[in-house]
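During the no-cost extension, the postdoctoral fellow (Dr. R.K.) reprocessed legacy sequence entries with the updated structure-token encoder. One reprocessed record is reproduced below for audit purposes.
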Amino acid sequence: MTMGSERRDQPRFRAEMRTDLVASGRTILAVTRDISSTGICVDCSKSLAPGTPISLTIGLPGFADKLRLEAHVVWTTPLSGMFQVGATFDQLDIPKSKALRAVIRILSREAARDLGAKKSVPRSVDDFFDPGDLENA
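Re-encoded structure tokens follow.
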């Protein structure tokens, strides 16, 4: 599949966050390019074959906690001496799904703010969740 023919079901949000990526028992420092509820794109120093299982530990913006997600590589592209890697998240449990949605809400509000919208940015994890989140997860 070429980059131009990719079809995405979920919106992606630009995000530059330090990410520890583990593949085949090796930790590779990576930086996210963008993220959605179903996958992530990172820049890293190693080429990874499609299908490779990976673990990502993402530093959350504004929080001391880190989010660990399991995924598998869908594609890798050389990029200026580095590699851009696209991955799809594996099945997320409820806490990880809620945490990922929280990250995406922060990023979507930042994107709206960058476009001139006047939206408040939540200050605590509790600000991200509606009472029905457990039923919808």
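The longest helix spans residues 94-114. The domain at 10-120 is CATH 2.40.10.220 (Thrombin, subunit H). The remaining legacy entries will be reprocessed before the final report is submitted.
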